[in-house]
């Protein structure tokens, strides 16, 4: 039954003469368009054989339009800009912290040509790339030395590999965290070659638990900030200062993994409980490890600050080369750290802080204005501003809500899931959240200059899209 349908499919050479595919050829070249057309027809023939459909349009003009759209879709980049209307400010799936304009400009400046990545321009001799940011990190944290790898999990691995391979590292059982993507601290430690020595219980660990665990095989004490969850109720943990005294008495390094990477106290911005790198060092930590793309507001990287001798051992370990960062990350990190030298203007210049500190009244005004504009879209049955809460995300300050305002949207004919998909797959992509059969666009995580792009996207929507 399918054979007559198959005979109706135009040959490749005929399809290539149609205007949509001629335009594709001009953009992508004859060979690629011909091959993609052939592949599309193979898929189409298989579909006809297996379904036996009789109502498919198989004329050359219609097929050429479909093939051209498919070719463009196949060539579209997987990594695209997104308007984050989820309300999760450090959304791991959406790239965590947006970079400051200064960081973007710094990346552009070194991306197009050569740079002094590992050359000392004064002497002309070979240098180390980390020197580009080392002095800034030491200035901002009070550390003797600093180094940078490609993320905080890498910072943990290389630190333990350099200082504790084949020996024990003592950690509280309540701090054996799992981070995004099912990466668990015990697994990360195992990859470093260090041996995990758990002490205490899930909810209570006391100072004597650490003291009793220290022995000839102990290489270090590790304290991990539980940044992505909280244990409340009948709990107890050892303060960093107390743990530091024990580490010093036994001449063991104390490593503090603070995770989210606060360089300043976030409490004035309404978020409590995040350790600050400089404070951890002042409290006696020998090394502090943290991320660059979370609270710090910079590019993805793992930062290690602390005692000169320990940092030097880490830098000399072979893994440091395998996990090193590139010139673009260095440029962005340097520019971001420079912003911290001016704390009086940081909230205006660091995008993450700017989003966090936007007053709710400002968000309400934007939500009201945006809702009025979206009511006119053919895809929208109803739109209204609603008060809600946002979260920092990225494994930081779990459970601490931030007041926000959203635009709550009810679609006219399609389901709310279909509307969300239409927005998510469009250009620009808009990602919101679904609550009680309404699509919420949370303006806490949307930059003001993106409001009009959202309106335009709704105006362009076609409710017949799948």
What share of residues is helical? Answer: 40-55%
Give the strand order of the largest sheet, numbering strands 1, 2, ... along the chain: 2-10-9-8-7-3-6
CATH superfamily of the largest domain: Type I PLP-dependent aspartate aminotransferase-like (Major domain)
Distance between the termini: 28 Å
- Rg, Cα atoms, Å: 27 Å
CATH topology value of the largest domain:
Aspartate Aminotransferase, domain 2
* CATH architecture grouping of the largest domain: 3-Layer(aba) Sandwich
* Strand residue content: 15-25%
Give the tally of β-strands: 15
Mean pLDDT: 90
Shape: globular
CATH level-1 class of the largest domain: Alpha Beta
Largest sheet: 7 strands, mixed
**How many separate domains?**
3
Query: How many helical stretches?
Result: 20
Structural class: alpha/beta
Low-confidence stretches: none
Q: What is the fold's blueprint, element by element?
A:
Elements: H1 2-7, H2 12-15, H3 19-28, H4 30-51, H5 60-75, E1 82-84, H6 101-111, H7 131-141, E2 145-149, H8 152-164, E3 168-172, E4 178-179, E5 183-184, H9 185-192, E6 195-199, H10 207-213, E7 218-224, H11 240-249, E8 254-259, H12 277-282, E9 287-291, E10 302-306, H13 308-316, H14 318-322, H15 327-339, H16 346-349, H17 351-357, H18 360-374, E11 380-393, E12 396-411, H19 416-424, E13 429-431, E14 433-435, E15 438-442, H20 451-460
Parallel strand pairs: 1-13, 3-6, 3-7, 7-8, 8-9
Antiparallel strand pairs: 2-10, 4-5, 9-10, 11-12, 12-15, 14-15
Helix pairs in contact: 3-4, 3-5, 4-5, 6-15, 7-15, 8-9, 8-13, 18-20
């Amino acid at each position: 039954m399918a054979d007559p349908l198959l005979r109706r499919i135009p040959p490749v050479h005929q399809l290539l003469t149609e205007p949509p595919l001629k335009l594709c050829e001009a953009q992508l070249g004859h060979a690629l368009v011909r091959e993609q057309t052939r592949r599309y027809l193979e898929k189409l023939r298989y579909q006809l054989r297996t379904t036996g459909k009789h109502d498919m349009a198989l004329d050359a003009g219609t097929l050429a339009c479909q093939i051209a759209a498919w070719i463009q879709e196949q060539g579209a980049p997987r990594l695209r800009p997104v308007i984050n209307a989820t309300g999760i400010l450090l959304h791991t799936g959406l790239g965590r912290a947006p970079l400051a304009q200064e960081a973007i400009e710094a990346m552009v400046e070194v991306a197009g040509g050569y740079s002094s990545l590992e050359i000392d321009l004064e002497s002309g001799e070979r240098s180390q790339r980390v020197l580009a940011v080392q002095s800034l990190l030491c200035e901002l944290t009070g550390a003797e030395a600093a180094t940078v790898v490609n993320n905080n999990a890498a910072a943990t691995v290389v630190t333990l590999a350099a200082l504790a391979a084949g020996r024990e590292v003592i950690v509280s059982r309540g701090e054996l965290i799992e981070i995004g993507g099912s990466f668990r601290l015990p697994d990360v430690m195992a990859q470093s070659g260090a041996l995990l020595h758990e002490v205490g219980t899930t909810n209570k660990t006391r100072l004597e638990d650490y003291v009793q665990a220290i022995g000839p095989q102990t290489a270090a004490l590790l304290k991990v900030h539980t940044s992505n969850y909280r244990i409340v109720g009948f709990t107890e943990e050892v303060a960093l200062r107390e743990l530091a005294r024990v580490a010093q008495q036994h001449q063991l390094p104390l490593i503090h993994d603070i995770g989210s990477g606060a360089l300043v106290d976030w409490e004035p911005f309404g978020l409590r409980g995040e350790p600050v790198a400089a404070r951890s060092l002042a409290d006696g930590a020998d090394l502090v490890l943290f991320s660059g793309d979370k609270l710090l507001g910079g590019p993805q990287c793992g930062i290690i600050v602390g005692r000169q001798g320990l940092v030097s051992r880490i830098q000399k370990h072979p893994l440091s080369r395998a996990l090193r960062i590139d010139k673009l990350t260095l440029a962005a990190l340097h520019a971001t750290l420079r912003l911290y030298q001016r704390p009086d203007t940081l909230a205006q210049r660091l995008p993450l802080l700017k989003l966090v500190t936007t007053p709710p009244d400002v968000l309400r005004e934007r939500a009201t204005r945006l809702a009025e504009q979206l009511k006119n879209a053919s895809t929208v049955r109803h739109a209204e501003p609603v008060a809600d809460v946002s979260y920092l995300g990225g494994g930081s300050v779990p459970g601490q809500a931030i007041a926000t305002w959203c635009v709550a949207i009810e679609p006219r004919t399609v389901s709310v899931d279909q509307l969300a998909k239409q927005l998510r797959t469009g250009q620009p992509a808009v990602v919101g959240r679904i609550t009680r059969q309404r699509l919420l666009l949370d303006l806490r995580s949307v930059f003001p200059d993106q409001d009009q792009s959202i309106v335009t996207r709704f105006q362009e929507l076609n409710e017949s899209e799948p």
